[in-house]
Amino acid sequence: MPRSQKNDNFIDKTFTIVADILLQIIPMASGEKEAFTYYRDGMSAQSEGEYAEALQNYYEAMRPEIDPYDRSYILYNIGLIHTSNGEHTKALEYYFQALERNPSLPQALNNTALICHYRGEQAIRQGDPEIAEAWFDQAAEYWKQAIALAPSNYIEAQNWLQITGRFGE
Questions:
Q1: What digits encode the pLDDT tens for the residues 38-91?
Q2: What is the band of 121 on the pLDDT scale with cuts at 50, 70, 90?
Q3: TPR repeat positions in this chain (predicted)?
Q4: How confident is the model over 139-167, as a mean pLDDT?
Q5: Residue bearing the bigger pLDDT, 57 or 8
Q6: Which of 30, 34, 54, 81 has the fewest CB neighbours in a 10 Å radius?
Q7: Helices in 48-163 by DSSP H: which ranges?
Q8: Would residue 153 be called left, alpha or beta, if left means φ above 0 and alpha means ψ between -120 and 50 degrees?
Q9: How many CB atoms lie within 10 A of CB 26?
Q10: DSSP state, residue 67
Q11: How far is residue 46's CA from residue 59's CA, in Å, rounded to a whole number?
């Protein structure tokens, strides 16, 4: 049974009904409809913590999806799952692929910065301040790009940049 038929709560059911109606009335190529259906099911599975199912749906959505902008969001969501699973190297690969297709994706820049910052903190705990500074500098660059795209978002990152003196660099 497709995930779209398994939704238990009212909001998910309502969204699914509206999405199904839109799929029927909006002129789209069959590949676009197929990609959207897999993407929607992937998002639903991801929101329920069913990461393996979500990944399977996202990979299926990538096959028929040709629009770079739409592919960027699929790749971003795959990156989110790898981040949640602690697979930061894989997550970065997917965030970078998403950014190649859509450089104006501030959430991918933010998540990339978060991983760099985390690695900087790890380096401090391991007693390697030079490596930590390199990671923190990299995090700062990604956060500055994210903030340039979405100035009212990422307030904590803005504060960190100011406190550490990296905002004006």
A1: 998 999 899 999 999 999 999 999 999 989 999 999 999 999 999 999 999 999
A2: very high
A3: 35-68, 72-105, 72-105, 120-153
A4: 96
A5: 57
A6: 30
A7: 51-62, 68-84, 88-101, 106-125, 129-149, 155-163
A8: beta
A9: 10
A10: -
A11: 13
- Indicate whether 169 pLDDT > 80: no
pLDDT at 115 (0 to 100): 98
Q: What is the dihedral of CA 35, 41, 43, 46, to 10 degrees?
A: -130
Helix axes 155-163, 129-149, angle to 10 degrees: 130
Q: Take residue 100 and report the two structure tokens written for it.
A: 């190649």
CA dist list (Å): 160 to 40, 137, 165: 35, 12, 8
Q: Which of 5, 74, 80 is nearest to 39 (CA)?
A: 74
Main-chain phi, psi angles of 102, to 5 degrees: -150, 85
Tokens of 129: 């301040």
Question: What's the sign of the alpha-carbon dihedral 6, 12, 13, 18?
Answer: negative
Chain centroid, CA 8 distance in Å: 25
> How far is Cα 98 from Cα 117, in angstroms, rounded to an integer?
20
Q: State how far the Cα of 82 lies from the Cα of 77, in Å rounded to an integer.
A: 9
pLDDT score of 8: 58
